[in-house]
Amino acid sequence: MSFSLPKLAYPYNALEPAIDTKTMEIHHSKHHAGYTNNLNAALEKHENLQTLSIEKLLKSLDDIPEEIRRAVRNNGGGFYNHSLYWEVLTPGGAKEPSGGLAKMITQTFDGLEDLKGIFSKEAMGRFGSGWAWLAVDANKNLEVLSTPNQDNPLTSGMTPVLGIDVWEHAYYLNYQNRRADYIKNWWDIINWDIVSEKYINL
Ligand code: MN
Questions:
Q1: pLDDT of 184 higher than 60
Q2: Most buried pick, 6, 68, 184, 193, via CB within 10 A?
Q3: How far is the CA of 95 from the centre of ligand 1 (A)?
């Protein structure tokens, strides 16, 4: 068994103008494909690890043999993070959070706009390459955090339900140094139905 690059549920041009076609194409067919191939290469000689889910691998990095630990952390993280990134985006965006997630956002933050502000600040504040996340802990509490490189909240026992890639490859062709504009426009293409569903199903 090996991991395969997930197909997108929409064409490369579907997220314009928030994310341009060329960025989508390179990001998915080159970067995400690269992480996927490198993850499979790292696991090639470790048959006992090949049956594990990506979540399981990333939750138990300490148990991974040292010679491939870094490769699994970086490329497994890249594989998982990008799969989530594509999944929670949708052309035109989808309304607002609903159900249990909407309720928890109201309880945890001063409403959705407050959450967006805190999350955007975290994404802006990530120095260099990394991600910002809305993650859920074991008690289903929400937390906004950011991680460097291809790390993610799974490693610290939380599950991400929303994540933004702030590596320059995610926005540079269209936005150059304007990370703030990329983040601002990214909110317009969030599929809150999927994010809400992910929260409920935890
Ligand atoms: Mn990326």
A1: yes
A2: 68
A3: 25
